[in-house]
Amino acid sequence: MSEVTGGHGGPVGPVGAVEERLAELGLEVPEVVPPVAVYVPAVRSGDHVFTSGQLPMRSGSLVATGKVGGDVTPEVAAECARQCALNAIAAVRAEVGDLTLVRRVVKVVCFVASVPDFTGQPGVANGASELLGAAFGDAGVHARSAVGVPVLPLDAPVEVELVVEVAAEPGAA
After folding, report:
1. Per-residue pLDDT reduced to its tens digit, 57-106
2. What does the alpha-carbon distance between residue 170 and residue 49 come to, in Å, rounded to a whole number?
3. Domain coordinates of the chain in residue numbers?
4. Into which CATH architecture does domain 3-28+44-166 fall?
5. Which pLDDT belongs to residue 159?
6. Cα separations (Å) of 88 from 96, 98, 150, 163?
7. pTM (2 decimals)?
């Protein structure tokens, strides 16, 4: 396992065991979810990978549909956020080839399609944040935005995107 360095300059923990940590939770990194429009699941720019928004797809179907605070409970929405984060991890792995290259999760943006009076978006986003913490340890601690929106693609209740820092590409200056 490799040690990673956080923004404070010190080690934040090993990340070589990401997939093993997920397995302990009964999870595995899925195959990358195919895009639903004209874009790619993730793009690397220098030492960062930016994922496209990931929907809560599992085995080719949305985990749930509808608005949080209406048809979808906050608990189901948090599970959706967790699945979105797992799908984002898959997009990162597909882009860099190996999750041991992830130095830290930098930023998470969680969009929550919710009824107008629902204000629990941060609790929903915790589903993603808690998974990233469990998977990456201290390297999974991140900045985050949780944003309520009126609608998301395919009537998904949640969409999550990540920015992660990765080890420099071999041969990069």
Report:
1. 999 999 999 999 999 999 999 999 999 999 999 999 999 999 999 999 99
2. 15
3. 3-28+44-166
4. 2-Layer Sandwich (3.30)
5. 98
6. 12, 14, 22, 10
7. 0.89
Listed residue (160, 3, 1, 168) closest to 90, CA to CA: 160
CA separation for the pair 61, 129 (Å, rounded): 22
Mean pLDDT of the chain: 90
Q: Which two tokens stand for residue 36?
A: 């639903």
What pLDDT does residue 16 have? 55
Q: Which amino acid is located at 130 in the chain?
A: E
Enumerate the β-bridge partners of residue 50.
Answer: 43, 163
Q: Which two tokens stand for residue 126?
A: 């915790």
Q: Is residue 9's pLDDT more than 80? A: no
If one counts every other C-beta atom within 10 angstroms of the C-beta of residue 20, the result is 10
| Interatomic CA distance for residues 123 and 143, integer angstroms | 15
Query: 């923990």: which residue's tokens?
Result: 13
